[in-house]
Design goal:
single chain; alpha+beta; 5-stranded mixed beta sheet; two-stranded antiparallel sheet; globular
């Protein structure tokens, strides 16, 4: 007689139990995987900031100062700031990221418009805008890059590519000056008595000058508060996450929220990623979305913009000495001010 071994398959119940166990294991692992992925993105973002800081330093070696936030050929008014809160219709010039292209491994892109960049302050040549639609991976944070829908644009130039980094123009948003024009050509605004916002820890008369402003770039060796304790570059979020026409995070546009931080420790922009309504003062197309940490005064003009990111609990910043730090949302307004002002007379302590 021959013996036959009968093979028995899984019952439906056993199969469901196995599927349930696998599902549970995946559910338990997903947060860890997501955390690892975000840590990797944060590290890549820090590396990008490090490279941008090095490019700014190389620019300084050649030009004897950091690049300006934007070159703006101001006509009339004796060469003083005039209507800089609006980009619409203005023949504004290249910003700091355009100026550092040859030092950020983008020499070919820069060379394609170099003659226009060099001529802008003399002739107002706008040919440099040929680069505005170029995607540059170095200018994007991986945590936010999914939102790189082009900004629709202004003044006959459309499809501006996105970016996530802004230079520190600082300035104080208050009654007599807004954050953006208050540091024009390196001007030094002071905190006024009776300003429409208060912080008892910041004395009246405290200075609030920026590092890279309209037609001005500081020398890192001459920063009164010290290069190691003053922010040069910080993160910005791409505005397309709240509205396709929101200008925030537009790399070649040298205005607040696009590629500039301004007034970021005063009035309703107090600390990184603040959730105040109408916090950033921006141009047309912006959307007020405080529930998403993207408050905006729609149509207030380019005056003020906070550092924002998609990293949990804070933002990455590059200091003027090239060091990269992570600043938590819980930082006090006083400390955030001290980190951004180049000349408030106090070196912040970590």
């Amino acid at each position: 007689m021959s013996l036959h071994t009968q093979r028995r398959g899984f019952t439906l119940i056993e199969l469901l139990v196995v599927i349930a166990i696998i599902t549970l294991i995946v559910a338990l692992l997903m947060p860890a995987i997501q955390k690892i992925r975000e840590e990797s993105a944060k590290l890549k973002c820090k590396n990008s900031l490090k490279q941008l800081a090095m490019a700014c330093h190389t620019y300084e070696q050649h030009m004897r100062s950091l690049p300006p936030a934007i070159q703006m050929r101001v006509e009339g008014s004796g060469g003083t700031v005039s209507n800089v809160a609006s980009a619409e219709g203005q023949n504004f010039g290249p910003n700091w990221l355009v100026l550092i292209l040859p030092y950020a491994d983008q020499g070919n892109l820069y060379n394609s418009v170099a003659s226009s960049v060099g001529a802008y302050m003399t002739t107002g040549d706008s040919g440099w805008r040929a680069v505005i639609g170029q995607r540059v991976p170095l200018f994007l944070c991986p945590s936010d890059s999914r939102w790189e829908v082009p900004w629709p644009g202004i003044s006959g130039h459309s499809n501006w590519a996105r970016g996530n980094y802004g230079c520190n123009a600082f300035g104080i948003h208050q009654g007599s000056t807004n954050g953006w024009n208050g540091t024009f050509k390196g001007a030094v605004p002071t905190y006024e008595a009776g300003a429409p916002w208060t912080d008892p820890t910041i004395p009246v008369g405290t200075r609030g000058a920026g590092v890279m402003c309209i037609n001005y770039g500081a020398r890192t060796s001459d920063i009164p508060d010290g290069a190691s304790t003053t922010i040069m570059i910080g993160e910005l979020r791409i505005g397309a996450s709240v509205a396709p026409g929101d200008v925030r995070g537009t790399w070649a546009l040298g205005f607040p929220g696009a590629s500039v931080l301004a007034g970021q420790a005063s009035w309703d922009c107090r600390t990184p990623n603040n959730t105040d309504t109408q916090a950033d003062d921006l141009g047309p197309g912006s959307r007020n979305a405080p529930e998403d940490g993207m408050g905006a005064c729609e149509g207030c003009g380019f005056q003020q913009a906070q550092s924002r990111s998609r990293h949990a609990n804070g933002v990455n910043v590059a200091m003027c000495d090239g060091a990269v730090k992570f600043v938590r949302n819980s930082v006090t307004q006083n400390t955030w001010w001290r980190m951004n002002a180049r000349d408030d007379g106090v070196n912040y302590k970590e």
